[in-house]
């Protein structure tokens, strides 16, 4: 089963990066306040980027890589 890395655009213009098996379900969890602490403080607006991986470990590696990006580098990734 594939895993996905996703980037959410939050209502304050910030980005949140995570990984999940089901991105749509995970976004709903974030919106209900059942996601990460960050998205409880910075309400998510929509999913702006999704990348698919064959394994959880590959998705987690990519998630860590994206989380290290600056805001402007995340914007460039999202706008590709």
Give a summary of the structure in a few sentences:
This protein is an alpha+beta fold and 80 residues long. The chain has four helices and three strands.
CATH hierarchy: architecture:
3-Layer(aba) Sandwich
User: C-alpha Rg, in Å?
Assistant: 12 Å
What is the C-level CATH assignment?
Alpha Beta
| Tally of separate domains | 1
Anisotropy-based shape: globular
Q: Report the span from N to C terminus.
A: 26 Å
Q: Could you say what the CATH topology is called?
A: GIY-YIG endonuclease
Helix/strand order, N-terminal first: EEHHEHH
Model description:
The protein has 80 residues and is an alpha+beta fold. It has one domain (3-70): GIY-YIG endonuclease (3-Layer(aba) Sandwich), CATH 3.40.1440. It is built from 4 helices and 3 strands, in the order E-E-H-H-E-H-H. A 3-stranded antiparallel beta sheet has the order 2-1-3, sandwiched between helices. The radius of gyration is 12 Å and the shape is globular. The model has no long low-confidence stretch (mean pLDDT 95).
Helices and strands in order, then pairings?
Blueprint: E1 3-10, E2 15-20, H1 23-31, H2 37-41, E3 44-53, H3 56-67, H4 71-78
Defining traits:
globular; alpha+beta; 4 helices; GIY-YIG endonuclease
């Amino acid at each position: 089963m594939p895993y996905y890395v996703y980037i959410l655009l939050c209502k304050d213009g910030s980005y949140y990066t995570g990984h999940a098996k089901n991105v749509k379900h995970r976004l709903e969890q974030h919106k209900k306040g059942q996601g990460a602490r960050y998205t409880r403080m910075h309400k998510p607006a929509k999913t702006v980027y999704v990348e698919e991986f064959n394994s959880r470990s590959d998705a987690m590696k990519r998630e860590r890589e994206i989380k290290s990006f600056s805001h402007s580098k995340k914007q460039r990734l999202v706008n590709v």
